[in-house]
Amino acid sequence: MNEQLKFNGAADLSKAKHLPVNGPFDENGREILLSLKNVDITFGKGDRAVKAVKNASFDIYRGETFSLVGESGSGKTTIGRAVIRVNPCAAGEIDYKGVRISGKIPKSVDREVIRNIQMVFQDPAASLNERATVDYIISEGLYNFHLFKNEAERVAKVEKIIDEVGLLPEHLTRYPHEFSGGQRQRIGLARAMVMEPELVIADEPISALDISIRAQVLNLMKKFQEERGTTYLFIAHDLSIVRFISDRIGVIYKGDIVEVASSEELFNFPLHPYTRSLISAIPIPDPLLEKNKVLFTYDPSIHDYSSETPELRPIGHDHYVFGSLSEIEEYKKIREAGIPLKPVTIKDVNAPADGQKEEEEKDADDNVSHEPILDTPLHDTGTAWLGVLAFLFPILGLIAAAVFRKHNYMRNRRSCRKGSFIGLAFRGALLIIFLILLLLAVI
After folding, report:
1. In three state form, how does the secondary structure of 339-380 look?
2. Which of 356, 285, 271 is nearest to 315 (CA)?
3. How far apart are CA 56 and CA 76, in angstroms?
4. Quick one: 300 exposed, middle or buried, by C-beta within 10 A (0-12, 13-18, 19+)?
5. Residue 131 contacts by C-beta under 8 Å, 6 or more apart in sequence?
6. Gap between the Cα atoms of 287 and 128, Å rounded
7. What pairing do the DSSP bridges indicate for beta strands 345-346 and 293-294?
8. Most buried among 131, 168, 175, 275, using CB within 10 Å?
9. Residue 198's beta-bridge partner residues?
10. From CA 387, how far away is CA 416, in angstroms rounded?
């Protein structure tokens, strides 16, 4: 039956009661594991309805890493949660191996989808049950799907996966709160990979981790892909990491998929303005170049969609861009020219960065730093001895306060001013008392 479904196309696959061994193949012979077709996802009802994802369409091929990138709130996680059937689709459909898995589906298909599609969550602390041991957390899927013959086989599977993610067997008896963030994410990865899934949705799995730990987790994911042929839907907002781990990248902006291309194609020819703005925001390791980098800012008002409806259209080279027909023609001309685009512009390294010259002139005028915490000098302690000296010599204290202000020693300045004012007030009070006593003596 599976072989028949494999070759009969989506019409037969949509009626399947079980998932086939393989999904449909595209014209290039690539197996389409997951396919989103004109998917809309809406939250709320009536006037309060918010369309979080609009007409999203893309395919994920077996064995690849497809990254979905965009700013916070763009709809990345919403799509990932829709794939695992947490968020319902308001329109369109999601197909897995050619079988529709969105909406109402047979229980047999639903069970196989849960078994074959796993998710690694962004927050490694919140995604783990704090009241369960690591052994139970990893074994829960094995229990639910009866993926072991006896207790010895279950223990062997758990110990093997815990070793593969770089943890020790004695960790199995501990609880999540006893681990660091990187170790918790390894537990989350082990929980997903022990099920031997075909597709793993990684929802920003490294954003909450330190830089060195990020590399370790990414290397683990890459190792599983090479050894098991795992397919990843990698959700992220950091393009600097996405470039080197992805086979293809989809860019999403406010619910719209605005560009889809292979990793090198996207970085060499970022045709949509929003993609260019994301690439230009990638930090440059050299601080001098970063200071003189000119950011490309995306302005949605540059598009005129009053007469034409924008769509995600192909421009060749397995590259898709969101736009009107006139924009697509311009994108095609740019791409066919074959000249790589440079979304990042570096000014003369000897010139000040934008706004820096004006800031320097303004600081020279008022001699006041706009970042007093960052710019506070080392010896600006505001010691009480300055206040005592200013009390004894108030005029010198006011002069010292003016000098400290000029050099941004603000704590020392306040101490001198306070001591000087108290000293002057004290002397003033003594003078008044002396005059009163003198007047009384004369009378």
Report:
1. CCCCCCEECCCCCCCCCHHHHHHHHHHHCCCCCHHHHCCCCC
2. 271
3. 11
4. exposed
5. 175
6. 39
7. antiparallel
8. 275
9. none
10. 5
Distance CA 63, CA 78 (A): 23
Strand 99-100's sheet: what is its strand order? 50-61, 32-43, 91-96, 99-100
Fold entry, domain 2-268? Rossmann fold (3.40.50)
**Tokens, residue 262:** 């292979």
Residues 179, 168: Cα–Cα separation, whole Å: 12
Q: Which CA distances in Å does 400 have to 3, 94, 149, 419?
A: 90, 73, 83, 11
E strands in 266-327: 293-294, 311-316, 319-323
- Per-residue pLDDT of the chain (443 residues), as tens digits, is 344 334 444 445 556 788 899 899 998 899 999 999 999 999 988 888 899 999 999 999 999 999 999 998 899 999 999 999 999 999 999 999 999 999 899 999 999 999 999 999 888 888 899 999 999 999 999 999 999 999 999 999 999 999 999 899 999 999 999 998 889 999 999 999 999 999 999 998 888 788 888 888 899 899 999 999 999 999 998 888 888 889 999 999 999 999 999 999 999 999 999 999 999 888 888 888 888 888 888 999 899 888 888 999 999 899 999 999 999 999 999 999 989 888 788 876 555 545 555 555 555 444 444 444 444 566 777 788 888 888 899 888 889 888 888 887 888 888 888 888 998 999 999 999 988 988 888 87
CA 321/CA 310 separation, integer angstroms: 10
